[in-house]
Design a protein that fits this description.
Order of helices and strands: EEEEEEHEEEEEEHE
Radius of gyration: 21 Å
Number of domains: 2
Largest sheet: 4 strands, antiparallel
CATH topology of the largest domain: Outer Surface Protein A, domain 3
Shape: elongated
Structural class: alpha+beta
Number of strands: 13
CATH superfamily of the largest domain: Ribosomal protein L6
CATH architecture of the largest domain: Alpha-Beta Complex
Helix content: 10-25%
Length: about 180
């Protein structure tokens, strides 16, 4: 059986889960989320614990089992705690700032790059305009937004300039042999 799929999901206080047909609705302190899950999967809620069961051991059902459980767990964690991604900016003159709700990046282009946050996502800029913190309740939206911001100026291997995830290690190259 799937190790991820068979793990139970404990429902924290303040979180509500409703299942209607093949749509799961989760609401909590931070907001509301909904997700369409495969209709073959059976979702059971008993005594504050949610379990996902599959109808057979076919390859398709085994793969959907873990996926369904992971999606529901991410929704429960999102509405109760939220998700955060942190990006670091390296480089002379590279900086970020928040104007209203929008994030504005100055990363070496002739123009500033503007990002408007989706619903339930917010930006915070710290550490003298060198750290961007993205917070939200939907794990997929937060991760995708962080990836799109990083894509504007990915870190380069010679000087390490660019936008990187917090804790990301960039393999550095030596450069020209004559420079040393």
């Amino acid at each position: 059986m799937s190790r991820i799929g068979k793990a139970p999901i404990s429902i924290p206080n303040g979180a509500k889960i409703e299942v209607k047909e093949s749509v799961v609705f989760v609401s909590g302190a931070k907001g509301k989320l909904e997700q369409v899950v495969p209709s073959e999967m059976t979702i059971e809620i008993e005594d504050g614990v949610l379990t996902v069961k599959r109808p057979s051991d076919s390859r398709q059902h085994r793969s959907l089992h873990g996926l369904t459980r992971a999606l529901i767990n991410n929704m429960v964690v999102g509405v109760s705690e939220g998700f955060t991604k942190t990006l670091q900016i390296e480089g002379v003159g590279y900086r970020a700032e928040v104007e209203g709700n929008d994030l504005i990046l100055n990363v070496g282009y002739s123009h500033p790059v503007r990002f408007e946050p989706p619903q339930d996502v917010s930006f915070v800029v710290e550490n003298r305009n060198k750290t961007i913190i993205i917070t939200g309740i939907d794990k997929q939206v937060v991760g995708e937004l962080a990836a799109n911001i990083r894509k504007q100026r990915p870190p380069e291997p010679y000087k390490g300039k660019g936008i990187r995830y917090d804790g990301e290690i960039i393999r550095r190259k030596a450069g020209k042999a004559g420079k040393v």
